[in-house]
Amino acid sequence: MLCEDPTAAPRVEGKGMHILVTGGAGFIGSHLVDLHLACGDQVHVVDDLSTGQRSNLAAHEDNPDFRFDQADVLTWDRLDRAVGWADRIYHLAAVVGVYRVLAEPTKVLATNIAGCERMLRAARDGGWKPQVVLASSSEVYGHNDEQVLREDQDLVVSTRAGTRWGYSVSKIADEALGLSYAQRFGIPAVIARFFNTVGPRQVGRYGMVVPRFVAQAVRNEPITVFGGGAQTRSFCDVRDTVVALNALANRSRTDTLIANVGNDREISILELARLVIQRAGSRSTIRDIGLREAYGEDFEDIRRRRPSLDRLRNLTGFKHRYTLEETIDDLIAVERQGLIGEKDGHCTLVRHQSERAA
Ligand code: UDP
């Protein structure tokens, strides 16, 4: 059972756990909200809607167990109160997406590091020590060229990656902050290194490859493969990601740990392009675009990225429910059915099939 947690003991009268999700209107955050509300928990979302969408949470607007505040974690004057209420905080508010990271390098550092520190300080200063789940990223491994990336390997910050490495630095800093607050102030921290999460509600506007390829294939437009397509990634369906994350957090209620969260099937970007074309029955051709043209600066892409999931599996026994083919099929169906609104380049809704994760 996805919701079952023998160690869960709500500290206050009322039902379920108190869950605070910063960045909860975003792609991963909104799926976490779905999961926790389905589990009978109470959920408070704070999101500045810079990239998140209120419509991602539309299904919950009338739910008395759900609350939303539009605010920036850097300046929100009620952060202390919200943190004091929470049993668990998922800190996802961050500047993400390679296009946004390249366009706003200073904002990346300010928001991602200062936002995390402010949240941890609030957790330290409250009377109660909530569990903190920090969203880190496979980007922290940088140019580490190991075939499989394990949590105890070195993090290789590479200046070859253009200004994109500021994002890696911000996530490494967040991890160090989480570990420091855990050691010094006893705040339990689960640090999740996400590997290329994909699925419903993700938008291609900030660079993410799968929604871009799906949108291009459905329209029979050329598929834009950057830099030759020999680079590999390992894609995990968001509906699996949030279940794994919850399982990790349930397992480690009072411990602090770092764990990769993703899927270990590896695929090259060129193979991905062909797979999307095939699943969509599309007439799209493949167009190779140089990295300078794609990203507007000298930019060395990460060559390969595949997680070791030993730690995740050993701790939780987690098993994936979605294959990459199923995820792509779902995204193609949604795109075709016109369930994705393209107003301002954002997706609206997508609740279909998420019941499978519940
Ligand atoms: N990519 C691509 N075409 C696109 C968008 C991205 O070939 O239209 C490539 C990108 O250069 C990278 C991979 O797909 O090698 C994954 O990109 P994404 O931004 O989704 O994730 P990340 O690079 O952060 O793993």
Salient structural properties:
358 residues, alpha/beta, Rossmann fold, seven-stranded parallel sheet, two-stranded parallel ribbon, 13 strands, 36% helix, disordered C terminus, binds uridine-5'-diphosphate
For the sheet with most strands, the description reads: 7 strands, parallel
Strand content: 15-25%
This entry's quaternary arrangement is single chain
CATH topology of the domain at 12-198 and 236-264 and 306-321: Rossmann fold
Task: Outline the structure in words.
There is one protein chain. The chain has a domain of 232 residues: NAD(P)-binding Rossmann-like Domain (Rossmann fold), CATH 3.40.50. 36% of the residues lie in helices and 15% in strands. With 358 residues, the protein is an alpha/beta fold. It binds uridine-5'-diphosphate. Uridine-5'-diphosphate binds next to helix 6 and strand 8. The site of uridine-5'-diphosphate (UDP) has 15 residues, from helix 6 and strand 8.
Task: Please write out the topology.
Layout: E1 18-22, H1 27-38, E2 42-47, E3 66-70, H2 79-85, E4 88-91, H3 98-103, H4 105-125, E5 131-137, H5 165-185, E6 189-194, E7 197-198, H6 209-218, E8 223-226, E9 232-233, E10 236-237, H7 238-251, E11 257-261, E12 267-268, H8 269-280, E13 286-289, H9 291-295, H10 310-316, H11 324-336
Helix pairs in contact: 1-7, 2-4, 4-5, 6-8, 6-11, 8-11
Précis, in short:
This protein has about 350 residues and is α/β, with parallel strands linked by helices. The chain has helices at about 25-40, 80-85, 100-105, 105-125, 165-185, 210-220, 240-250, 270-280, 290-295, 310-315, 325-335; strands at about 20, 40-45, 65-70, 90, 130-135, 190-195, 195-200, 225, 230-235, 235, 255-260, 265-270, 285-290. Uridine-5'-diphosphate binds near residues 208, 227, 231 and 301.
